[in-house]
Amino acid sequence: MFDTLILILDSTVRLSTPLLLAALAGLYSERSGVFDIGLEGKMLGAAFAAGAAAAVTGSAWLGLAAGILLSVALALVHGFACITHRGNQIVSGVAINFLAMGLTALLGQAWFSQGGRTPPVSGDARFANLVWPFAESLRDVPVLGGLYSELLSGHNILVYAAFLAVPFSWWVLFRTRFGLRLRAVGENPAAVDTAGISVAWLRYRAVICTGILCGLAGSYLAIAQSAGFISNMTAGKGFIALAALIFAKWKPVPVMFACLLFGFLDAVAIRLQGQQVPGIGEVPVQAIQALPYILTVILLAGFIGKAVPPRAGGVAYVKERG
Amino acid sequence: MTAGQLPRWADYILMPAINVAAAFIVSGLVVLLIGENPIEAVKVLVWGSLGWNEGIGFTLFYATNFIFTGLAVAIAFHAGLFNIGGEGQAYLGGLGVALACLALDRYVPWWVTLPFAVAGAAAFGAAWAFIPAVLQAKRGSHVVITTIMFNFIAASLMVYLLVNVMSKPGSMQPETRTFEDGGRLPLLQDVLPFTDFGSAPVNFSFLLALAACLFVWVLVWRTRLGYEIRTFGANQTAAVYAGISPVRITVVTMLISGGLAGMMAINEIMGSQHRLLIEFVSGYGFVGIAVALMGRAHPVGIVFAAILFGMLYQGGAELAFEMPAITRDMIVVIQGLVILFAGALEHMFRPALLRVFGVLSAPAGTPA
Predict the structure, then answer these.
(1) For residues B99 and B274, what is the distance between their CA atoms, to the nearest angstrom?
(2) Is residue A315's pLDDT more than 90?
């Protein structure tokens, strides 16, 4: 029983990681007043770029760089449309999702001819799991040994990066001048503008942060969790991340707990596939899979506290002309 | 013409044309990037979709789907709402169609089943839009986010129903039994004299889609409700002062929108597949966004945009056959680019165009 729990928690950590990176990505953009439903697309683009670059160069780090680069490029397209040209942020996000979905599948097939996959990567081209000191020898210690060797040790570097990004993002957003201004521009851009700070430049920096984190999320999927890119491999994770961001009311630490919860549900759903649960019978896996979305809708309905988005979110800033 | 304004024809025809052209030019660059000839690709695409009877039939078949989902997005646009949940609403609409067909197909001819199927499609599609609509109207939760969530919930619900409840006994396939003749719409070539679409599945639903266009046009521009919807979309504060109830308009518009999206299932389920199956919507709900943007939320524009996307879907299949390097994913790329240029970047070319018109309309001899 305890071993099963450890296994489920272990896969919870693995499944939460891409959600966490993508949700934190959305945090920067949305806190600055730029809604982003294109997290999914940026993740998918990054996964493809990382998979392709890692397969060609044989280096996981170059793969990661390519993933981040492409994701930031897509984020800048979003910024160009929504910040510079004041386009509709939702429409732009939808466009980016389609662009990424189409281009990754199309170029994947054209370049590698493996049904939209990138060639499988191994060795240096993939982020290996880091085994912490004494993990093997401590494995047999009751309770703590399992926790240490399974749960804490044995993940790849991007998993640790994702969880370290939580306190880091909190620090950036709530303890630095940049973070203060970023949050202010999401609540009241006119006030920030009056203080002589460029609204557009601040928002561009926010969407670049979003791009970097989405790049990490996508790269994790392609060259850390899996050994290569598969067509449409994000499969809605970007939207679950968005749900987690809203569920956490746009705050970094709650974002982590929301992502862990949604990752846990995913892990349980995989575990329960086709199994009989005593007293309940076969649990419909689809019900558990739909739970993150249902919970988010219930939250949005205002039944579990109220999720108030950044006030200027979704609205392009128009400088007053005298 | 006042400063900063384009003549109406430029605003309604030239601007969208430039935006769509930009999308297609970038698509051409993508084709070049793959190492194929874009001009050749366009030739294959146009011939494959319009060059032969069966091609035209398939083009119109896909266009039927896009007219419904495009109208669904468009009517919501008029009220200033973004219904991104057409995908889920159409999926549920399929359930409504299938229930009507499964109940009646053995006893009555298709034209008796059809009204029930239409009612089922519209009711189930509308029902799936109802909760997001009420949450937006009463609790202020953003309809975009809730409809996205409802797309995923619909996908889970339908998989559950098709695997555990509705699949035919003894089969592992997640689909219902095949409908008998009473649950099948006739092909368009059997309804319209002197037409021949080969083995293309274009069917009676195409006429239904055109009727839906007329319905939306009358509703939006010729009724009191349509006036209220447009007023609400243009200026919510003014609408409230004019005595228009925001709750009522939001809910009613979303119900109509969801109903229209649900009607798409008539074409796929009753017109072509003759059974309810998993993931039959396969992105057609999202294409509606591109179609509505390109058609500028007007039924006539939507018919043209839907036919263009129908051409892309049918011609794209031919293209994938003739030039294997260009897979059908190219359609998704073009769709993304159309949404980007005709939607998010719709104002990018406006300043330049204004300058051009400014120069043209300036009287000779004065500095422009």
Answers:
(1) 12
(2) no
Give the span between the Cα atoms of A147 and A118, in whole angstroms. Answer: 35
Residues of B in contact with A91 (CB under 8 A): 82, 289, 293, 339, 343-344
Distance, in Å, from the CA atom of A313 to the CA atom of A317, rounded to the nearest integer, reads 10
How far, in Å, CA of A109 to CA of A126, rounded? 21
Look at A102 and B332 and tell me if their CB atoms are within 8 Å: yes
Strand partners, B277: B175
User: How many helices, marked H, and strands, marked E, lie in chain B?
Assistant: 16, 0
Residue in this structure with the two tokens 């990505």, named with its chain if needed: A25
Euclidean distance between CA atoms A234 and A280, whole angstroms: 32
Token digits of residue B349:
């070319």
Which of B32, B144, B340 is most worth mutating to test chain A (most A CB atoms within 10 A of its CB)? B340
Interface test with B, best of A34, A91, A288 (most B CBs within 10 A): A91
Local structure of A183: helix, strand or coil? helix
Rounded mean pLDDT, B192-220: 93
| CA gap B61, B313 in Å, rounded | 10
In DSSP notation, B16-53 reads HHHHHHHHHHHHHHHHHHHT--HHHHHHHHHHHHHSSH
Q: What is the DSSP letter of B201?
A: -
Strand partners, A276: A282
- A290 neighbourhood in chain B, CB within 8 Å: 152-153, 156-157
Q: In angstroms, what CA-CA distances link A314 with A15, A269, A311, B292, B356?
A: 29, 34, 9, 20, 31
pLDDT in tens, B103-118: 999 999 999 999 999 9
Out of A207-211, B142-146, B306-310, which region has the weakest mean confidence (pLDDT)?
A: B142-146
Candidate from B152, B164, B340 with C-beta closest to A99:
B340
CB neighbours (10 Å) of residue A144? 9
How long is chain B? Answer: 368
Six-digit token pair at B341?
A: 């240029």
CA distance B50 to B73: 27
Nearest Cα neighbor of A168 from A12, A279, A25 is A25
- Classified as helix, coil or strand, A278 is coil
Minimum-distance CB partner of A88 among B141, B149, B343: B343
pLDDT bracket for residue B1 (50, 70, 90): very low
A31-77: per-residue pLDDT in tens? Answer: 999 999 999 999 999 999 999 999 999 999 999 999 999 999 999 99
What does pTM read for this prediction? 0.89
Contact B329 A102 (CB under 8 A): yes
Domains of chain B from N-terminus onward: 37-324 (1.10.3470)
CA distances, B182 to each of B112, B118, B186, B319 (Å): 8, 14, 10, 36
Rounded to whole angstroms, the Cα distance separating A315 from B243 reads 26
Q: Do the chains contact at A95 and B337, CB–CB below 8 Å?
A: yes
Give percent helix, percent strand, percent coil of chain B, each to the nearest 5. Answer: 75, 0, 25
CA distance A91 to B136: 19
| Whether A98 and B33 lie within 8 Å, measured CB to CB | no
Q: Report the b/e string of A261-277 with b at 16+ CB within 10 A.
A: bbbbbbbbbeebeeeee
Residue with the bigger pLDDT between B35 and B115: it is B115
- Residue by residue, DSSP assigns A3-25 as HHHHHHHHHHHHHHHHHHHHHHH
